[in-house]
Every structure is written in structure tokens, then in C-alpha cells.
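Appendix C reproduces, verbatim, an entry submitted by the partner laboratory led by Prof. M.T., so that reviewers can inspect both the input and the predicted structure.
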Amino acid sequence: MSLKAMSPSAAPPEAADGTLTPPGSWREPDSHFLTVLDSAWYAALLDLQDTITSATVGFWTERGVRFGHLPVTTGSVSSPMGLGSDSLPVKVDLFGAPTYLADSMQFSLEYLCRLSPRGAYYLMPSFRGEAPDATHLCQFFHSEAEVPGGLPEVMTLVEEYLRHLVAELAARHADLIRAAAGSLDHVESLLDRPRPFRQLTFDEAVAGLEDDPRFVVHEDGWRNLTRAGERALMDMFGDFLWITHWDALAVPFYQGQDARGRALNGDLLFGPGEVVGAGERHVGPVELTDALRRHTVPAEDYDWYLRMKTRAPLRTAGFGMGVERFLMWLLGQQDIRNLELLPRVNGRTILP
């Protein structure tokens, strides 16, 4: 697909040499907001965020998937509950009641699937307890959806969503993307890529990496990939690579399993590494109870989740995409902290 004929709605604000470069003002968080006021980079970022939002709404609306207005507080964290996760929950005291700022709304989206026959989605902030670095933010925007069906169906939806998102962004902001990333080759490559994206099982990925300890971490009964391992796989097989069927203990307890005991999940690698995580859930309470036991997660903490699956068992699958990580790929950026309009760092008050 050629993008040469595409005309963005407005030319991007850029430097005299035609490039668009982040000012790095997140390093001075107390004065960052003043830099933003005169920054071509952040004006462009706002344009991209607006298009991502409208394109996301359009994609799901066309498919009859419903947007839910969900709270940002929860009593049940999701993403940090895997032994292989590098994420921590954010616990707060809310007028004397211990609660969490949502790391994901996957559980609530599963709940909404019982109300919406074609599924539910949202686009809103997620909160994580780890310190920020080049690929992690304390608060980031999460594009998540949950739909009836299994892992193959949701992986297909992820690929359709990404193609739709990138086509919309290229149609409206081709010059802006080129000014930041240096070219549109990566955009054209995605839009021209054969369907479906390439897939490797986790076992195949480990074999391809020759189980090198730089790339594969062995724990007690499960394995994980390092960031260097993700990069090595993309160097070998290219971007937009699915790694599926991980060791069950390396992923959160809510992921279903196949007959071999491997997780029904997939991580999509592109740009900085994992950008999308997808998975199929346990259908009923028996499988879920067993998974909680194996992951040593107290069942009483998820009593409501068990009761929902007892009352309304349903096969669903879902995914979450980190919007800022997606933008790292789109704009050719190496540091995710350039993609926050207003930085947020745990343990520090930053205004506005």
C-alpha cells in the first residue's frame, strides 16, 4: 500500500529541517508543562491521541462492541497477579477502605461481556507501581477489549484493529509520522504485511533462542523472556510476531490452558517489544479455582469473580495494548517518557 498520495489534514509543526523531535522535558517535571505550551512535539502528540481515540471508537462501534464507563478503582488487581509479571499494583486508602487504582479493566470487561453479546472495550488510564523507565510508565493509556470466543478470534481482532488504527493515522498524519520517525517504511510494511501475523509458540521461541540465559529466564516451574530475548526474536523473525502458549505459571491466573497445560495466551512483539497481550479466560469456576490454587492466589480475594463464572459461565478472550508503546513504534522513539503529555511519577506530586 502506497502512502505517497495520502494528504494529512494539516501539516505537522516541525523544526526548520523538517524533523519532529521530543524536547525531553519530562526530565524536568516541575517545568515540563511550560515547555509543552510551545512544543511542536506535544502539539503533534495531542493530534495523534485524538485520532487513536476516534479510530478506536469507530472500529469497535462498527462491530457492535460496547464501550463501558468503568471506575478507575478496584478491589481486584489483574495484570500483576502472574509470577512472570514485572508489574506492581497501586494500593491506596480511600476514606479508610483499602483499594487499588486499576492496572487493567479486564475483569470488568469480562463482566460487561455478560451484558453485551458482542463484547466490550475501553480506552482509559492504567496504574502501575514500578518506577518509570524507557519502556514503562507509572500511568499509561490502555486500549482493552473482551469478546466472546477464544484466543484465535481475539488475535485476529488485534491484527484487524492495528491495521485499522495505523491506516487511520497514516491517512491523517503521514507527514507528522514521517517527520518524527524519519520515514513511513514501517507503516507501509505493516499495512502490506500478509495475514495473519507470524506466530511462534513459547517453546519454539525458546528453541530459536537456544535457551540462552541472556534471553530466557528459568524460574521454579516456569520460564520468561527478557527484553533482550524479545529483541532477539524480532531481529530473527521481524516485527509483529506473536509468541503464544507460554508456561502457565508465567502468566496471570485468569488465563485458560490448553490440553498440554500451556497458557491460552499470546504476546505481540513489535517496536519496543511486547505491545499487546492477549488471552483466553477460564470458562467456569472449577478451572478458575484450580488456577488460583496453582498460582497461590487466595481464592477469597476473587470470590466475586468465581461467583460470576458460576452464575454466568462464558468463553471469552481479550487483549490490552499499551498506547504509548504503540506510539513508540509509530514515531520511532526509544523512550516512552517522551509520549506523556503530563508526566506522572509514583511518590511525587507533579503539577498540573
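Residues 4-13 have pLDDT under 50 and may be disordered. Additional entries are available on request from the coordinating office.
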